[in-house]
Amino acid sequence: MAAPDDVISYFPRDADFATLSEIVEAARAGLPSDVRDFLDGGAGREVTLRRNRQAFERWAYRPRIMTGIGAPDLATSFLGVPLGLPILTAPFGADGLFHPEGHCAVARANAAEGVASIVPEAGTHAVEAVAAAAPVAARIAQIHPMGRPANFAAMLRRIEDAGYGAVCVTVDCPTVGWREGTRHNRFDPDPAVLTGNYPVGGPVALDEVFGQLFTRTEPDWTWAELSERMAATRLPWMAKGVLTAEAASAAVDAGASAVLVSNHGGRQLDGAPAALEQLPEVAAAIAGRAQIALDSGIRSGTDVVTALALGADAVVIGRLAAYGLAAAGEAGVRRIHQLLRDEMHTVLTLLGAGSVRDLGPDFLQKVQP
Ligand SMILES: Cc1cc2nc3c(=O)[nH]c(=O)nc-3n(C[C@H](O)[C@H](O)[C@H](O)COP(=O)(O)O)c2cc1C
Q1: How far is it, in rounded angstroms, from Cα 350 to Cα 165?
Q2: Which prosthetic group or cofactor does it need (predicted)?
Q3: What average pLDDT does this structure show over 315-344?
Q4: Staple 295 to which of 269, 277, 289, 316, CB 3.0 to 4.6 Å?
């Protein structure tokens, strides 16, 4: 039963991946086992990694039926970036481990599907290279608040000069989380996968910027310093890694235009609550003063809808995008977005929601998992 391309068919009709799980399995099957563990894994005993998934099962939908709504509208905007889908791809570093084109391929896939990239500072390709690969999609660049202020300021200027429209500051990573899996594997990737922005022999050495992450040096940045240093750019910025009302308010007071509710996909502080669990608390504290995104545990279009109903304006996908990249490069990431889009379309239709912007807590009720 063939259908035109713009109609979602119940009957998958080609050899392409028909489900997100097929993409994840293809990616996992093709990666060396230590790279697969690095991608899949979390910190400590992976309690937070598991919580991220369990949290979604504590919410059930309250569908509105016979509403007469037409096709649901999935478009929105975030940090001034127009989005065809309420989705951004996460700044996952070391992307060359999954595919040589890394975030350049992700950005091209995003441009084709109405998704925006958050491009990592610790990536395989420089921010300038990713922007050149897909200027429309590569709109947000991620940066770590650490190291010498002069280096930080120089990186901010590079982000501006490369045409990015916003900055994402990762505030939950003063040092790298205690990752049992990578320790057990003695995982020691080629540093080249991290040095896109700081090539060997360039003006700034990688250790000067990220040394603190790996040597466990005491963190020395505060909200006040971050605020002062971000005042040097005219670009709006988002604080990534907010889990509490206190942190959300501090971020907004420091000048953030958005917060990303995130526990880094369970890769940083094991024992932290699920990001989804914290979303209502953060949304209440923000009270409309900034936009809100959520990551950590998004694995389906249904999950996206739940996060938006709980107060997120958009979601960020980390591992899902990386699996797409590992499975089939640019085409794999595109397929991830297409399947998320089609599933969201179905879920919104069944839920009786006309637009992603109409979603709210009225569409949900708490249940025992
Ligand atoms: C392989 C990998 C590398 C990552 N590198 C970074 C990074 O350099 N900076 C950062 O802020 N977050 C990093 N993250 C975290 C993601 O940006 C994001 O918060 C997380 O993947 C979201 O959870 P999810 O994977 O369940 O979607 C990384 C995640 C993965 C899986």
Answers
A1: 35
A2: FMN
A3: 98
A4: 316
- 69 alpha carbon to ligand 1 midpoint, in Å? 36
Query: Which residues on adjacent β-strands are paired with residue 60?
Result: 365
- Dihedral sign, Cα of residue 194, residue 199, residue 202, residue 207: positive
The CATH number that applies at residue 164 is 3.20.20.70
| 253 assigned to some structural domain | yes
- Unique residue bearing structure tokens 């420091």: 254
Please tell me the predicted confidence (pLDDT) of residue 210: 79
Q: Which helix (H) or strand (E) holds 50?
A: helix 47-54
Rounded alpha-carbon distances, angstroms, from residue 49 to 53, 77, 331:
7, 28, 27
Nearest CA to ligand 1 atom 27: 318
Which protein residues touch ligand 1 with a CB less than 6 Å away?
Answer: 39, 90-94, 120, 122, 142, 170, 173, 240, 262, 264-265, 267, 295-298, 317-320, 322
Domain carrying residue 182: 88-354
In the block, tokens 């007071």 appear at 253
pLDDT band at 203 (very low <50, low <70, confident <90, very high): confident
Rounded to whole angstroms, how far apart are CA atoms 193 and 191? 5
